[in-house]
Design brief:
Layout: H1 21-43, H2 53-58, H3 65-82, H4 94-104, H5 107-119, E1 125-132, E2 135-142, E3 157-163, H6 170-173, H7 177-184, H8 190-202
Antiparallel strand pairs: 1-2, 1-3
Helix pairs in contact: 1-3
The structure holds fe (ii) ion.
Length: about 200
């Protein structure tokens, strides 16, 4: 396989008014693109060019900081983009809704715990909903680490990603990370997250 830079699944202005078009343009075409380009440079002429990302992350402690930071940035943003959609928001349904209720008590309680994890991520990082041994867990990582990495405190399959780097929200929200998180719930693509959940379970994660 080769590592390719994916298209954004919607236009830059598709998540307005919750995430502004300028933020999306810079975030995708500059930040994400740079992680991808630097990752490709870091793995050039090595076996990692034909190693899939989850296998790379499973042994990330044995690779360079350039592979860790840029490979993470490359993957994390793909999941983040795909967890959002215009006309998103609302609540999940089906098996994911049931699992959230069973694990956290209610969707509102889940939202509260997830938002707290995102707010309390010190500096730059991501909040995650993770499937581990068939169970749902909330976690956060700093910089561009993720739960697929062998260095992560909580390891498992991420099915929902929230980027809390300032570059994800500064233009509209400045330092008000909680306001960005409140708005972000309106663009979460629960159909996609449900699909990621089903795939993770099917893979025995
Ligand atoms: Fe980002």
């Amino acid at each position: 396989m080769s590592h390719t830079f994916p298209e954004l699944p919607y236009t830059y202005d598709a998540l307005e008014p919750y995430i502004d078009a300028k933020t999306m343009e810079v975030h995708y075409s500059k930040h994400h693109r740079t992680y991808y380009d630097k990752f490709i440079a870091a793995i050039k002429d090595s076996e990692l060019e034909s190693t899939n990302l989850s296998d790379i992350f499973a042994q990330i402690s044995q690779h360079s900081p350039a592979v860790r930071n840029n490979g993470g940035g490359y993957y994390n943003h793909i999941l983040y983009w795909n967890c959002m959609a215009p006309n998103g928001g609302g609540t999940p349904s089906g098996a994911l809704a049931q699992a959230i209720n069973d694990t956290f008590g209610s969707f509102a309680e889940f939202q509260d715990q997830f938002a707290q994890a995102a707010i309390n991520t010190f500096g730059s990082g991501f909040a995650w909903l993770v499937v581990k041994d068939g169970q749902l867990l909330i976690s956060s990582t700093t910089n561009q680490d993720n739960p697929l990495m062998d260095v992560a405190e909580v390891q498992g399959e991420p099915i929902l990603a929230l980027d809390v780097w300032e570059h994800a929200y500064y233009i509209s929200y400045q330092n008000r990370r909680p306001d960005y998180i409140d708005a972000w719930w309106n663009v979460v693509n629960w159909d996609a997250v449900s699909e990621f959940y089903a795939v993770a379970l099917a893979q025995g994660r």
